[in-house]
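Example record

Each entry pairs one chain with its bound ligand, magnesium ion.
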Amino acid sequence: MREKNILVIDDDRIILDSLCEFLSLEGFQTNGAETLKGAMAELEKQSYSLVITDVNLPDGDGLELLNTIKKEHPQTVAIVITGYGTIESAVKAIKQGAYDYLTKPIADDELRLTVERAIKQQSLMSENLSLRLQLEQKYRLENILSQNYEMARMFARVEAVADSTVTILMTGPSGTGKSMLARAIHHRSSRRNKPFVEVSCGALPETLLESELFGHVKGAFTGAVKNKEGKFLAANGGTIFLDEIANASPALQVKLLRILEDRQFEPVGSNKTKTVDTRIITASNRNLAEEVKQGRFREDLYHRINVVTIDLPPLSERVSDVRLLAEHFLRMYCRHHNKVKLGITVEALKYLERYSWPGNIRELENVIERAVLLSEGKYIEPEDLTNPIRKQTEKKIDGPMSLKEAAAEMEESFIRQALEANHWNRQETAEALQINRTTLFKKMKRYGLYTEAERLGLT
Ligand SMILES: Nc1ncnc2c1ncn2[C@@H]1O[C@H](COP(=O)(O)OP(=O)(O)OP(=O)(O)O)[C@@H](O)[C@H]1O
Ligand SMILES: [Mg+2]
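Structure tokens for the complex follow.
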């Protein structure tokens, strides 16, 4: 039995039965309906790959059904059956979104061919849709996890500017999520159905980068054997993400400034000006203000790209995210590699939370993927972690903790206990701890307790 199913609608019982029988023999799961109402009810019950419907039904018009399918079941493909010589209704049906039509009397070969083609089309459609959904899923802001206060502020900022053309500069060390957030912004804007193009300004030598971005005309330089479009045009209507912008050469900086000011540029070797409507997001893991001070980056360009800044803190400054992200990656890679792990042991978590994470979230992601692949037990244990983590942290765990660290750890757990004892009521907790509410609030924020409370709906 194939996994594709077909709904056939015809008020002529004999035709209906013979169609259903034929399609069942072809291996499809087949259901029949004799009326428009019956068909609608059937579509509510389950989703169909294909609907084959007569145009004239006793209680309405098969074309009406096409409308419903288009609106409510976009993954279903429709074929209409028309009477001999009524080509007009077939044309109308196609215009209304039917994939194809069959004329009565229906020959077996024709039916087989038409159905095969329609099913192929349907597979493509549902594949596209699920790919798109997957992408949207991945880049939904909700999937960019954090319970850090700074990050929450950044998310709010992203939310506010996503659907505008404002230029955004993302800063933060490598692996903190700049690229991911750039994509999320694109997917959150009305440009989401247009291209998102990412170019790393550090990956190519100066001249190649220029033609990569702006294109070139044939003969512009040796090796330019034909015209090339360039990424800015490729991203027309969409978003271009220029990573490692600090690496742009002085000449390129001038070109970028112009494109930011009036959206215009000329391809390399051409004097024909082009105009594009491309939203620009840039990123840098170097401090651009410093680059400006050192005279390596144009100040006017800096101000142009720095309209809205999103500064992503290193993972070591959002320790409360380590566990959240580690568990997220654990679920993700278990699914991906078809493994079953119940969690991360308390001991292993301690290691993860104390490590300095020079590679930030990317490093954490790699560490967890590796652990998922290598660990043999049901839980991720310290042995499953990489050497640097164990070495660096063992010192910290076994060696003396600084007084400040120890005090902070005690303070955090003390406050948490008080909050829990007072049902997270801040007034009562503050009274119990004999501090004022503002102080409590500040401490809660410092230890990530405030965002935790928010998450639990306790604020
Ligand atoms: N908050 C987050 N929640 C979930 N996954 C995240 C988060 N931040 C980053 N990641 C994941 O971490 C990895 C690294 O992120 P990303 O590539 O966006 O970093 P980056 O800042 O662009 O790094 P680089 O400067 O090296 O280009 C990616 O796989 C991304 O999906
Ligand atoms: Mg990146």
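The chain has four domains: 5-132, 141-313, 316-398, 403-455.
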